Amino acid sequence: MHYEARVQAVRTYYAKKFGRKIEKKEARTIWLAAEQYMQVIPWWCASHRDCWEYFVSRWCDPEWQKTHEACRQRRLKMPGPAHHQGNRTLDEYAASWSRAYEGRECPPLMAWALAHKGKASSIEVDYNPEDGPEAYSNATVHARLQQYTEMAREKHGPEWNPSTEELDGEIIMRIGGGKKHGRYWIGDSTLNIASTPTLSEIRARSSSSAPPIRPRPSAAQIQFDQAQAQLREEMEAKLQAQEAKYQAQLMEQQARYDARLQEQHARMQEDLQRQMQMMFHQWHCGGMQPPPLPLPPVGTSSPS
């Protein structure tokens, strides 16, 4: 919350001091002095000045600014926005989507997937388990959904539909390597912390047949793996196209070869017929009888 509060404070200060309206994108790159932040205390914090002073002290701390900037740069490297929930919880996003879609149910995993596709009010935002990485604002979401679905079906059976069931906290802990920076790999705001086991609890009760606890891949690793998969698909498609072209060329060559053979055979038949006609004509003009036809081999029928 205090991240957006700082951005809004910058926008309010510029509007009041300079009469200039600035967008959030620009405001995020502007840093005010402590006394400037104190001139624009928001209404919701007006009766808690000490809380606002605490926020301001953090914003003006060079170490905090350095960490904040490093995180901002990492976010800028993301191929798309983190999500489309805005300042709403995932439950609020799901309720908004259900209202927009005439009361359709929106279970937790489905809501999490949709929140990474578009706004809840958009008529084009719907869940399809067959969608590829390009359907999501961040391609890493597709990898997480695949990992969760695979392990969920490994645990609950091949007919288990994760999009209509409640989130399985243990599976999320296993595929995400536990919590990182206090966050779960999937559905962070919807999981029941009390009922979700810790990694140590999972290890203590796991058997050899249980799904393994996987190290959480970084966003860069997921993007690299997806780029490799896409490259393999492109190479396979290219090889298939080349093979199809090669087979088409072979068929074309075979067709031309067969056509030439037929043409040569037809010419040979014509030449043979012409020679026979000339011979019969010469014999007839010379008063000669044509020789008898050769007898057929023993065991074969005579020509009719």
Structural account:
α6 (90-100) crosses α7. Among the domains are: 2-76, no CATH class; 90-217, no CATH class. It is elongated and about 135 Å long. It has 304 residues and is mainly alpha-helical. It contains eleven helices and no strands. The termini are far apart. It has helices at residues 2-18, 24-27, 34-37, 49-59, 62-76, 90-100, 108-115, 139-156, 169-175, 199-205, 219-285.
Per DSSP, what share of the residues sits in E-state strands of 2 or more residues? under 5%
Individual helix count: 11
Class by SSE composition: mainly alpha
Multimeric status of the protein: single chain
- Overall, the morphology is elongated
Calculate the terminal CA-CA distance, rounded to whole Å: 104 Å
Computed CA radius of gyration, to the nearest angstrom:
39 Å
Helix content: 55-70%
Chain-averaged pLDDT: 84
Write the H/E string, N to C. Answer: HHHHHHHHHHH
- Sheet with most strands: none
Q: Ranges with pLDDT <50 over ≥5 residues?
A: none
Using DSSP, what is the number of strands?
A: 0
Short account of what is shown:
Residues 224-256 form a coiled coil. The protein is mainly α. It has 11 helices and no strands.
Defining key terms:
304 residues; mainly alpha; EN-1/SPM; coiled coil
Topology at a glance:
Blueprint: H1 2-18, H2 24-27, H3 34-37, H4 49-59, H5 62-76, H6 90-100, H7 108-115, H8 139-156, H9 169-175, H10 199-205, H11 219-285
Helix pairs in contact: 6-7
Coiled coil: 224-256
GO biological process, one term: transposition
Keywords: Coiled coil
